[in-house]
Amino acid sequence: MLSVTAPLWVGLLIGIGFGIVASLWGIGNPETIIRAARLVDRLLLGCFLLVTAVGAVVLYGLYALGVSMHFSPKPTYLYGVVAGGILFGIGIAVSGYLPGTALVALGEGRRDSLAAIPGGLLGAAAWTALYSTPFGHWLVSAGNLGDLVAGGNIHQVAPGRMLAIAAVYAVLALSVLYFLPRYRGSKHCCLRDIGGTSLDDHDREMARDTAEYLYEGALPAPRHALLRRLSRDRVTEPGFLMRTTAIAAVLVAMLAVLSLFLRQQFGQSTTYSWLVGQLFMPNFAYSREVAATIGWEPLSDLGVLIGAFLSAYFLSRRFTAFRPVTPPSWRNRFGPTPGKRAAAVFGGSFLTLFGARMAGGCTSGHTLSGGVQLSVSAWVFTASLVVAMVITAHYVYRDARWQVAAVARTSESAPR
Questions:
Q1: What is the pTM of this model?
Q2: pLDDT 10s digits, 116-143
């Protein structure tokens, strides 16, 4: 079989590629995550399906052709994965940040990401401490079903069988995307209307509002004609954002497969635990385990930061230069107070990283990389976080408006 093990520095390039695509994808903006949690805009949820569907077929197709992969699905210890997913979902609904998107946001110059990073580090430290207790050991050992993928244990399944399962999964996932309406109250679907020719006034208004929050507080529009294709005006064109996001999702799938071929799966929360272990808690058991198994994660996370900056500053022009920009959903509910928003981001990021390390990975390591491998633990983790984030968002944001324009009219009024 064709086999490659790339040096660690290649992770920096993988991270830069992911950072560029993720920034164009819009997931560095916390409002994107919050709207997904509120089920206002389902494009992000749909793109996770698209990433795993395309990635699984490519991954197991290459594997069936004799290309060796560094498979590494997370172990399925049910109690820890479910509990971690629930905490993760609660955290992202409040903060709007995943472990990796906090780095993307930092590269884009988003001020509240400065609270997300220390909150995440403290969450990783809390898990490092809990891991050394009997309860911590129980969480990662009880109900452990091993390295399961859809076809069985990853070390025993036949490549042809996994390709067949991947093909069935892709058909099911793409069918869901074909019939899934993108916006709340919309009749038009993510894939069926990707051309944008049949969009109605509701969808056009939602697209305009999407452009408003993506570019709020950003740099002036570029003068160069090529860069203007990614500017605010182009984003409001029917179907443009769906097409570009679908392309970004396919590129993310390719990067996930490339990572598994070159050395290891792509993941981002491990770096937080590694930093905690190196700087503050070197003698804890979990810190020693992370130090012994760490791969290119610190370099790939640095690459994400660099790639997001390059994308936001030179391509999309969404760089906000650390201006005080608060997500519309948050400020329509709680007001624009920076301190309140920073506290929520810190606390939410604490829960997110605490849950991620409890479950053994985050949306990058579980949902994306694990989903591409058709990992059972990835499905359990993702289902847990989706349920938790939707319920949390319902109670946190209630019936507050999400539109940017609503803030312009009521920015000085009391929160609802």
A1: 0.92
A2: 999 999 999 999 999 999 999 999 999 9
Give me the pLDDT at residue 27, please: 92
Q: Which two tokens stand for residue 363?
A: 């949306």
Q: Give the DSSP per-residue string, 351-406.
A: HHHHHHHHHT--IIIIIIHHHHTTBHHHHHHHHHHHHHHHHHHHHHHTT----HHH
- Mean pLDDT computed over every residue of the chain: 89
* pLDDT tens-digit map of 330-372: 999 999 999 999 999 999 999 999 999 999 999 999 999 999 9
pLDDT at position 413 is 36
Residue type, 157: V
The CA-based angle 39-305-284, given to 5 degrees, is 90
Q: For residue 228, is pLDDT > 70?
A: no
Instruction: Specify the pLDDT at position 290.
Output: 96
The string over 179-195, giving b where at least 16 C-beta atoms fall within 10 Å of a residue's C-beta and e elsewhere, is ebbbbeebebbbbebbe
**Token pair in block for residue 230:** 């990614």
- At 101, list the tokens: 């998107």
What is residue 229's predicted lDDT score, i.e. its pLDDT?
A: 52
User: What does R_g of the chain's alpha carbons equal in angstroms?
Assistant: 20
| Cα–Cα distance measured from residue 4 to residue 111, given in angstroms and rounded to the nearest whole number | 40
Q: Where are the domains of the chain?
A: 10-408
The stretch 270-278 carries a mean pLDDT of 97
Q: Which backbone phi and psi does 152 adopt, to 5 degrees?
A: 125, -160
CA separation, residue 372 to residues 52, 94, 211, 243, 311 (Å): 4, 27, 30, 21, 25
Q: Which of 328, 112, 317, 98 is nearest to 229 (CA)?
A: 317
Count the neighbouring beta carbons within 10 Å of the beta carbon of residue 227.
15
CA angle 287, 288, 291 (to 5 degrees): 85
Helix H or strand E encompassing 98: none
Phi, psi of 264 (to 5 degrees): -160, 170
Which run of H or E residues covers position 408? helix 404-410
Is the torsion defined by CA of 55, 82, 104, 23 positive or negative?
Answer: positive
Cα→Cα distances 62→143, 163, 249, 282, 377, Å: 32, 9, 19, 40, 23
* 322: three-class secondary structure by DSSP: coil
Distance CA 130, CA 125 (A): 9
Which residue type is seen at 202? H
